[in-house]
């Protein structure tokens, strides 16, 4: 009986540990918040510098994704679209092609480079990933973020 208990306890412990989400350290989270603030203020050069500095000390998966996404948005803001695509691809590689932000920033850059078919495909991936989300509140939030991002970055006021 004890053996079964310990086996079950060990199984559930290993499942909970493997399912755990690792998050950014407090310091990295603060750096990310500051860099995001610079993005919101449209201080793209300063934001890019902040994300570059952050990449030296923040090495968790979610930190790496946040850094790549921040760099992509800053590079899009600076008009460096090819580099923004590279940063977006880095975020997609980190997340195994599951980064909504990665596809979104990539679509913005592709659109600015007049690669309209590529941009449509990237936006379609954003929508596809969003539709898979069973959390209605999160899905609505994603659509709102896409609309706000499109408004801010593409200047597409009709969509």
Compose a concise summary of this entry.
The longest helix is centred in the C-terminal third of the chain and has 19 residues, at 136-154. This protein has helices at residues 2-18, 26-40, 44-54, 61-77, 81-94, 100-112, 116-131, 136-154.
Topology:
Layout: H1 2-18, H2 26-40, H3 44-54, H4 61-77, H5 81-94, H6 100-112, H7 116-131, H8 136-154
Helix pairs in contact: 2-3, 2-4, 3-4, 4-5, 4-6, 5-6, 6-7, 6-8
Task: Give an account of the 3D structure.
- The protein has 159 residues and is mainly alpha-helical.
- 77% of the residues lie in helices and 0% in strands.
- It is built from eight helices and no strands.
- It has helices spanning 2-18, 26-40, 44-54, 61-77, 81-94, 100-112, 116-131, 136-154.
- Helix 3 (44-54) runs antiparallel to helix 4 (61-77), helix 4 runs parallel beside helix 6 and helix 6 runs antiparallel to helix 7 (116-131).
- The longest helix has 19 residues, at 136-154.
- The protein is globular.
- The chain starts with a helix and ends in a 5-residue tail after the last helix.
SS summary, helix count = 8
Helical coverage, percent range: over 70%
Anisotropy-based shape: globular
Give the helix/strand class: mainly alpha
| Fraction in beta strands | under 5%
Distance between the termini: 63 Å
Low-confidence stretches: 1-22
Largest sheet: none
What is the H/E string?
Answer: HHHHHHHH
Q: What is the number of E strands?
A: 0
Average pLDDT confidence is: 80
Rg result = 19 Å
